[in-house]
Amino acid sequence: MTKIVALVGSLRAGSTNRQLTEAAVQHAPEGIELTVFDGIVDLPFYNEDLDGDTPPAAAVAFRRAVAEADGLLLVTPEYNGTMPAVLKNALDWASRPFGSSPISGKPLAVIGSAFGQYGGVWAHDEARKAAGIAGAKVLDDVKVAIPQSVVRFAETHPREDEEVVGLVRGALTALADAAGEPVAA
């Protein structure tokens, strides 16, 4: 069983990116266990002074979830041309201690949707860049950017959209393959 942890960059309960994550959880290929770690909202802004001998409990729980995962799926909208601060902050916490962090060498893919015509590609590019610098094994070839999300999902949940389901299943399969645990497509 390949264990993948999803981090959702939008905190809004009804966000299309949260719905996209729900679709991924529901339609994960056999052999993949996808869970959502919602605790990134509880992480304080990264501050090395807080990250000493007794880091915050939220950071300990988050790092443990990342360490126990075989791969990470970042699901992000685009805020002002980049990823949301909560997601960047989570990457900062996951990147420490540098070189032996829980994200170091961990396969990671970025997907998401946005209202604009490009589906959040700038945010996805920034998330891939930050994750790579943090030490993750970024899957640059996994690109799922769903444009005009508010219109596309106005009356349909992403889990009911065959194209979207295929895209998220493909991203999850690529993560499992990168983790060294191929799954049946």
Commentary on this structure:
With 185 residues, the protein is α/β, with parallel strands linked by helices. The protein is 37% helix and 16% strand. Helix 3 (85-94) packs parallel to helix 4 (121-134). The radius of gyration is 15 Å and the shape is globular.
Topology overview:
Blueprint: E1 2-8, H1 16-26, E2 32-36, H2 57-68, E3 71-75, H3 85-94, E4 107-113, H4 121-134, E5 137-138, E6 144-146, H5 149-152, H6 162-178
Parallel strand pairs: 1-2, 1-3, 3-4, 4-5, 4-6
Low-confidence regions: none
Number of E-state strands: 6
For the sheet with most strands, the description reads:
6 strands, parallel
Mean of all residue-level pLDDT scores: 94
Please, how many helices? Answer: 6
Helix content range of the residues, please? Answer: 25-40%
Q: How far apart are the termini?
A: 14 Å
- Spatial extent as radius of gyration: 15 Å
Structural class, by secondary structure, is: alpha/beta
SSE string, helices as H and strands as E: EHEHEHEHEEHH
Shape: globular
- Residue fraction in strands: 15-25%
